[in-house]
């Protein structure tokens, strides 16, 4: 359901859930795989892939903690640029046209909420969707390196919501938006039929810094990639080496 016309008051704040409202896919695993591969290398990505069956069993909350730890532990905070260089391309390709229209037609203050670490989504939401605030988990840092652990609370959540705010989320995230005066829920069944956002509707020109992955790294696609990398390279029928570089 979209916000009613009477709710599109520029003096109000629209608070929307990025994964539940904008993205068509129901899994954030590919985004962590992108970070693991691009920032951490093939070995880290392979470990994350091996853990995928476990992620499916432990539930979303614990699974998120596992993905964050494997993806970020040991990475340098100062040199982390994936959130502004590589991820925006894949976020844009995953945005639903219908969800995009619901968010962008609102002319007031917009605040994006994500279950992913803030460092992964902030530049995309600010640069491409022109949001004024981003709420996401902060990663703990020691000696300039990510520990792979998240702060227990969304430190920026306090004071974000007010009685005038409009919430836009899917059913399973509605509890987070309980402080909003009005909450509109996105039907997850209909969301599965959303069309991809056309390139001509991109809010700004996409500046993509070539990464090593040109495809969306779903579990199946990533498994196939590792199988291809592990194939021996032969010369005149003899094996001379292996393409898997870990």
Automatic annotation (TrEMBL):
It comes from the Eukaryota. GO terms for cellular component: membrane. Keywords: Acyltransferase, Lipid biosynthesis, Lipid metabolism, Membrane, Phospholipid biosynthesis, Phospholipid metabolism, Transferase, Transmembrane, Transmembrane helix. The chain crosses the membrane at residues 21-37, 43-59. Residues 13-186 form the Glycerol-3-phosphate acyltransferase RAM2/GPAT1-8 HAD-like domain. GO terms for biological process: cutin biosynthetic process; phospholipid biosynthetic process. It is found in: Membrane. GO terms for molecular function: glycerol-3-phosphate 2-O-acyltransferase activity; phosphatase activity. InterPro entries: HAD_RAM2/GPAT1-8. Belongs to the GPAT/DAPAT family. PANTHER family: ANCIENT UBIQUITOUS PROTEIN, GLYCEROL-3-PHOSPHATE ACYLTRANSFERASE 3-RELATED. This is Glycerol-3-phosphate acyltransferase RAM2/GPAT1-8 HAD-like domain-containing protein. It comes from Rubroshorea leprosula. The lineage of its organism: Eukaryota, Viridiplantae, Streptophyta, Embryophyta, Tracheophyta.
